[in-house]
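To: structure subgroup
Subject: Chain for Friday's discussion

All,

I'm putting the inputs and outputs inline so they're searchable in the archive.
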Amino acid sequence: MFLLVYATFFTKRRFYHKDYCSKSNLIFFYEWISIKSFSKMTYLQKYSYLENIIGNLLMFIPMVFVVFLLFDKEVKTFVMALVLLFTSVFIEILQYEFNLGVFDINDILLNFVGGLIGLLFFKTIKFKAWKIVQ
């Protein structure tokens, strides 16, 4: 959770651009569709593009494990999906309100998918552990 908060609000790259409040992306995949061919990008553009996608996916994978540890009981899959979705939306709203980032609908989607991947990992690990015990 500490790494999630740090990466979202306090990394150095957050302070390069000062006026995020005028920016938001409410159209799914707009940046991905409008972007020029990946092969024509500079190395820095490719790195930034992949960092955004992979970072948003990976950032929410551990979130599932943290929620299960905090509640110390079985959380239903639907409830966990709602927690992941609302947490991602909440983070995007905070970034926008405190001028620390752009409100991006794609970030919400990628965070949510990353959380679902984490949920799949958790359920797989739990199932295998249960099978070993029996």
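Points worth raising on Friday:
Strands lie at 24-25, 103-104.
The mean pLDDT is 81.

D.
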